[in-house]
Design brief:
The chain has 7 helices and 2 strands, in the order αααααββαα. The protein has 257 residues and is mostly helical. A two-stranded antiparallel ribbon has the order 1-2. A hairpin with a 2-residue loop joins strand 1 (112-122) and strand 2. Helix 1 (2-11) runs antiparallel to helix 2, helix 2 (16-51) packs parallel to helix 7 (216-250) and helix 5 (84-105) packs antiparallel against helix 6. The protein is rod-shaped. The two termini are 48 Å apart.
């Protein structure tokens, strides 16, 4: 902008005021680029925090974000059986079932067996005597079934909770999957139908302004439209990266295995 503006000013077809206004627009555009670049860097940092990694891994961490090709939803749903939350629910259910077995085994009273030795005299002769004693509490069968019933109820509830958890995990996965696909489609559409045309208009406006065919206002309008389109595109990419992190969390982290 500065070079073209000075050429137009030197040629006498651009006032100093308009040239300074052009310089101001250029500096504002550069400032916007820095802001947008920082926003994108912050988005990547937040994304890495979601993934719980300290630094970017080698290669493209999310190739499907740029290509627009997500893993099949059916594959992700199948992988929910390895989701940490689901595995925790399975462990809880197994523990509840073990509690039922423990409660049933506790229904028996504790039977004690004792072995003893003694010396006794029989017909004037001392002999060693070994005996066995069995202590059995009465009644032998503990008829109190409340512990078994309570443990069985807890096991049944754990099973219901596990089924409910699986439904919630699958629902959340489907919602996050659809939202990411929507953002990918929206970003690609915006890039092809808004950002690229705005860039083309801006390029043609610069050429026309340099040739003295376009007024400064046309160039400024084209510049504003282009950089506003870049800002919107950066916002979409930020939202897309964050949504990709949410999908990874919802899938149990299997997207990057």
């Amino acid at each position: 902008f500065q070079r073209i503006g000075r050429q137009r000013e030197k040629a006498g077809d651009l006032s100093k005021l308009k040239r300074l206004r052009l310089d101001l627009a250029r500096e504002q555009a550069h400032q916007n680029i820095k802001v947008f670049s920082n926003q994108l860097a912050n988005s990547r940092t937040r994304f890495y925090l979601w993934l719980k990694i300290d630094s970017p891994p080698a290669g493209n961490i999310e190739p499907f974000i740029e290509s627009g090709e997500l893993p099949a939803l059916s594959v992700l749903i199948t992988g929910l059986d390895r989701h940490p939350e689901y595995l925790a629910g399975v462990f809880k259910t197994e523990m509840a079932q073990q509690g039922v077995a423990l409660a049933k085994s506790s229904r028996w009273g504790e039977i004690e067996v004792k072995v003893f030795q003694a010396r006794q005299e029989f017909s004037g002769v001392q002999e060693d005597v070994t005996g066995v004693g069995v202590s059995v509490p009465l009644p032998i069968w503990n008829r109190e079934k409340s512990n078994v019933k309570k443990a069985s109820a807890l096991a049944s509830q754990a099973g219901f909770d596990l089924e409910d958890l699986k439904i919630k995990l699958e629902t959340r996965l489907k919602i996050d999957y659809a939202r990411l696909q929507q953002l990918i489609d929206e970003t690609q559409h915006y890039k092809g139908h808004v950002l690229r045309p705005a860039k083309t208009v801006f390029r043609l406006a610069r050429i026309s302004f340099k040739a003295g065919e376009a007024d400064i206002l046309i160039l400024l309008d084209a510049s504003k439209a282009y950089f506003e389109a870049k800002k919107k595109y950066a916002d979409l990419k930020r939202d897309r990266w964050l949504q990709a992190a949410k999908l990874r969390y919802a899938s149990g982290g299997i997207l990057h295995k």
